[in-house]
Amino acid sequence: MSAINSVLEYYYPYLAAIAKNSKNPKEKLSRNDVMRYGNSLRELQRGLTGNRELPGSGYLEFSDQLAVYTLYYWPISFVQTFLALSEIAQRGKLPKIETLLDLGSGPGPNSFAALEFGAKRCYLLDSSERALNTALTLAERIISNTSNFSVSCINLETMPGDALPGAPETCDLIIASHSINELWKNEPDAAIKRERLLMKAWEQLAPDGLLLVIEPSAMVTSRPALLVRDRLLTSLSDAECVAPCPGSNLCPMLQKGEARTCHSTWLWEPPQAVAELARAAGLDRDAVKATWYALKKSKAKQKACAAPQTSADNTTPALEGRIVSEPMLNKAGRIRYLVCTEAGLMTVSAARTDSRAEACGFFRLKRGDLVRFSSLQVREGAFNFGFSEKTDMQMIMIAPNADSCPAPARQS
Length: 412
Hints:
CATH 2.40.50.140, globular, 9 helices, Rossmann fold, 8-stranded mixed sheet, 16 strands, alpha/beta
């Protein structure tokens, strides 16, 4: 069993008990429970991802919707935050987490994921008192000392003043997961208001602090999230993007047109209870997806890199970046990937029969991997490269996988 599912298997009986308004974590969901919650999940899913009438509507104040969210979306959000923190830690950019601020926390999946990475004090802010009480109840049942687990009910859209009520003066990690996209929904200046909120939170970060924003991968939420990322990197003189992007340049996907966006896809075999709910609702669940970014306080902002120069033999020097697509097969029989680099978006391809590409592991790359190529052949078209006999490929980082991600080393 993966480290993630091991933790979820421990949490889930308590989540189920809270959803059923019970104090007995040994009481499993009955078949009737699964069918009833499955029907409710189908309706909730449509409202969150179909017509999107629920985000920003205070839906977690309704007991049935909160129960279904706790049983199904809580584990998914936990996995997303866990994996994002895993990648940040893998890159050596995760600070020691003494204090966490969870913006728009809902019932707290992000805070509980951060606890696995050593978070000591958690401050949860949300407009739903019911959701906050769910988080607090869960903490009381599974954490021996809850004195450092604080919840505050606040409407982030209408809060007064420059400070965040209920937040610590200084924090090491701020997480805003599936919350910023619900604020000022459908307002023409939503991006400006969201930027201002995150800049206000940024002021409360410690010198080595980190801001982690996670949003749904759908186009309607992903592109606005990346737009706010770019606005923050433009406005903040001390911000560096440390994950998952290869640098702090403006997102090249946004410049490629309205049909382009960027997200992570993590394979995940959910625990049995979550899988049963998904089946009852008619949903497929074999992966989790998210658009996310992590900004870290930095004394020196990175400068944008120039495009790779071509050498005398029509090959490039080292080209380093992140795979941001699935493998694509063209009519000529070439497998190609989109690679996001500090200099912009590149295309790297190889014929399916290319033995050099096969030996390097090119055909086994997946979305999120960080790679370094050298001696790529320049092909027709801008920023288009292919394998040659001299090409080499090195893996900088294999993207975390939900089913094989190791348990984090607990911070002391």
